[in-house]
Each structure stands twice: as structure tokens, then as C-alpha cells.
Amino acid sequence: xxxxxxxxxxxxxxxxxxxxSRERYLLKxxxxxxxxxxxxxxxxxxNLAHAFASCDKAQQVDAVNGSKVVGIITAYNDMLxxxxxxxxxxxxxxxxxxxxxxxxxxxxxxxxxxDGITQGEPGMELSxxxxxxxxxxxxxxxxxxxxxxxxxxxxCDKIVPGLMIGALSFGHMPIAFIPAxxxxxxxxxxxxxxxxxxxxxxxxxxxxxxxxxxxxxxxxGTCTFYGTANTNQLILEIMGVQLPSASFTPPxxxxxxxxxxxxLECVLNLSEKNLxxxxxxxxxxxxxxxxxxxxxxxxxxxxxxLIAMAEAGGYKITLDDMNDLSKIVPTLTSVYPxxxxxxxxxHNAGGVAALIGSLLDGGFLFSEVNTLIGNSLxxxxxxxxxxxxxxxxKQPSQILDQSIIRDHQNPFHSSGGLKLMNGxxxxxxIKVSALKNQNENITAPAKVxxxxxxxxxxxxxxxxxxxxxxVVKGQGPSANGMPExxxxxxxxxxxxxxxxxxxxxxxxxxxxxxxxxxxxIHVTPEAKALGPISKIENGDIIEIDLINNSFNNLxxxxxxxxxxxxxxEGSSSGIGRELFSVFRENVGDVKKGASIFNEN
Length: 600
Prior knowledge:
By secondary structure, the protein is of the alpha/beta class.
């Protein structure tokens, strides 16, 4: 089907807007490519000996004589369930490389922290900045400059965006991504959420809560709700830098090992064709990524990450681009927290391939894009199967459960899962895919706090048993690294269940699993920049209008203009936070991807 005219218009706008930055990026690629192509031939003998000293003698000779060398950047650690399966991947890849007359080596590791562990803890203030640390770490790994191609192993929230930013800085090589897949389904997400609300309400004790959480998070693999980690995976597949069916094939499936081996084969093929990552991902790829985010009801975190990732490849995408796309791109999936299904059920219902097929049929994705396996996204409609111990893609995926995935002609909603909000408080975004009413008007008095601990204290004291809009300020990137405030989901859910009208307004983040509580987040200008959010006081009437995509403080202009902006500095030391002062001092705002890599 012909591509939707509005999508063509947005893609052209991005291309025109990015002309100079993209040209600079491609010139950098060309220069890096020339340096890299002759690097091993011109490298000093001692340099080469160091590079391949850990290889066996035959590989040392092969490396000097021109065998393809693949560098692996891995986020493996065995503390985090999502990354524990990656332990054996380098050995699988090395063995597969030998069969391809190539050499694979682990070029470096990157940190991988878990937002699920750090939620509500001081370490969460390092979370967003860890993305840029991962990008820097990836660059260090690839900097040895002896590689013909690269593989990035990683899954979760900041890891994949960081790996992509780092990979694009080495975009003169073909680079592919390999995930681990989700853990098997434990208790239902609804049951888990219900126990959290009961604990917040004092109806069950801590032992009941821990038992519930351990039943939900119980083995190796990614968490099974559709949060940031799994949104990353879906988007990478739609962008064609991950193999079809790779995102949600379980870690212990025989297919998973074959997908890993096949990815190595594909990236070597791209090296033979001289197809570079930085050339492969063009403006159409980034539009496809945004469409994937919006159509799937994905994580709000990806609004920031996509801007930062695209910038690394020379493209300037904006929140306005996402908002314009959201007006026309339908919501075609219903996965928790937007629905009851988890990602395993989504995968079994047709998965990413079925979603891609539905979007292609509706004219919402560019099909003529380069991928790991060809030059058409139509290849990604097919599901991976094993045939004589080889991986094949034969059968187009079918939608097997209309309660989870829909055809483009029968969407869950006619628009996407995110809205850009504007008003006299600034600009923010809201995830609407999980809300009961995506077009409601929420008007209530403000209750103002400087951190989420104050909110929890007020809830415990019964001070929030009323209609209110919780305002948490001083949570922006330059203030404290823009932590997620996901711990507030349960108590605010309790207030909802008691019949109160509640919402949250913050210059921080909520979570990739933002749910049924309306949350206008990523508000900019942030409080530390003395934006209008810093002038909100207790009792101000706040209106969140989802029909007109606006949010406003209804106090008069005269009153607001007479007020002093108030920002209260929080603690920035302990648990490593003091080491990140240089990040807080140099980070851009959310419109620029909240990144330290801001182009002047």
C-alpha cells in the first residue's frame, strides 16, 4: 500500500531539517572508513601483536592476512535477569565466526543497571546518564580500530540507546544488535499490580509483596511487561538492525541460539557489501522507529532516546514529529500496561512480524529500507523457523489474537499511544494508551512536592485522600538526572480506586510501564531552569485537557507573574552521584534527548 501522505511529509521535513548535520555525519563516516580500511595494514607490528595476542596462532596469522574481524560489545552481567543469558553469546559468536572464516572477539563491556532495582533509590539518579556512559564505553571498545564489523549485545532501558549512540559513532562499519529475549511468564501483571496497591494501602504485608514480586520476576530474561526494555527490542526489529523474530524469542529456545549465529553471518555479509550502519539507518528508518513506538503504546522513555539516537546519526527528530505522527498512526497492540497481555502472549499472537505487516498494509511504514537481511521491510513480516537445523523465514506472521494485535483497519485507537502537551506550565508528554479515557479533562488542585519521598509520606499520612494533581518538581536532567518516579504508581492507583481524581505533573520521568494514572511528564523548561513548573503552589488549580493536548495553571497571569520561581536543590552526593556532576552541568533538555552529546 502507498505510504500515508502525512508520513511522507514528516520524513521529508526531517530530511530537510537535518541536511547539514547529516552531511557532516556522512563526511565523518567517509573519513573514518578510509582510516579503518587501511588500519590493520598500516598498524605497527607491536600494535597488531597486542590486538590478537589472545587468539590462537592460526587466527593471529589470519587477522594479519585479511580475515574479517568482528568486535563484540556486551552488556553481560549475571546480576540482571535480562543480561544474564548473554554470558554464552560471545562463545557462540566466536564459534560461528570460525565457520565463516572470520574472527570474533569481545572488544569491551558496558555497564548495565536495572531501573527495577533502583526505583525510588538514590541510584536512579544515575539511570538516564548511564545511557551516555554506555555510549562512551562502546566507543572505547571499538576504538582499537581493527574491526570490520560489530555486534552489540544488550537489552534494557538505557543500554540499547547507549549502544546505538556508540555504534553510530562507528557507523562506518556494519553493526547489528542481539537481544536475549524475555523470561517466561510468571504471575499476571494485573495480579502483581493489585498486590502493589494492596501493600500501598496497608492491606498486605511486606512478605506478601516480596512473594508477589518474586513470582513475577523469577528467571533469566527480560521482564515480561511492555516497558522500556521491550520497547527497545520492538523498535530495533522495526529498524532492521535486529533479525526478524529476534526481539521476543525466549532465551532457552533452540531458535535463540540460531538467531545469534545468523546475526553474525548477516553482519559479515553486510561487510562484504560494504553496507555501513550509518548509511543503513536513514530518515525513513527513524520515522519507522517512531511509528513503531506510537502504534505499540510503547515507553515514554523512548521519546527521549530516539531523539538522542537519531542525533548520533546526523538526524534531528523532535517531539513535534512524534506528536504529528501520533495523530495519524493507530494503536494496534494491547500489551500490559496498556492491556492484559504480556510480551510472550504478544509474541505468540503474531508478535512484531504481525504488527509490521499490519502497519505496512496500512501505509504507515517505509518498506524500502536496508535491513540485516535485505533491502525491504517486507522481509520482517515473516517469522523465524528452524528447518534442518537452519533458520528460515518463510511464513508471513498472522494475527492470532485480536485482543492483543489488531489489523490497521480495526485498531484499538485511531491515534498513537503518546500525546505532546503544551500550556503555560511548559511542554510535556503523556502516555494515553493505558488510560481509560484518552480524551478526558482533569481539573484539580495542585499538591506540590520536591521529591517522591515527600509524596509517599503525604500518602501515608492520609493527606492525599482528595482530588488532586501531584506536582513533583526539581526532577529534571540538570537537577538530579531525571529519575523515574515509578514508585508513585501504586499509591496513586490506590487513590484512584478510592474514587479520587488524581494525576501527576513532573519535570522528571515516570516509567516505561506508565499505567492508568494520567502523568504529564518530561516537563520543560524544568524547575532548575526556573521554568513555569517552579511557580506552581499548593492549591493552584491545574487543568490537564487531553482533547486539546494542553495543561495549564489556571491562576491568573497577574498572580503567576508576581510569583518568584522556587527551586530547592536536593542532595547530589552518595551512591556515586557526585561523580556525575559534569553530566548534570552539561546535559541538554528533553527536547534534545537529555543528552550530554549536544551538537552546537
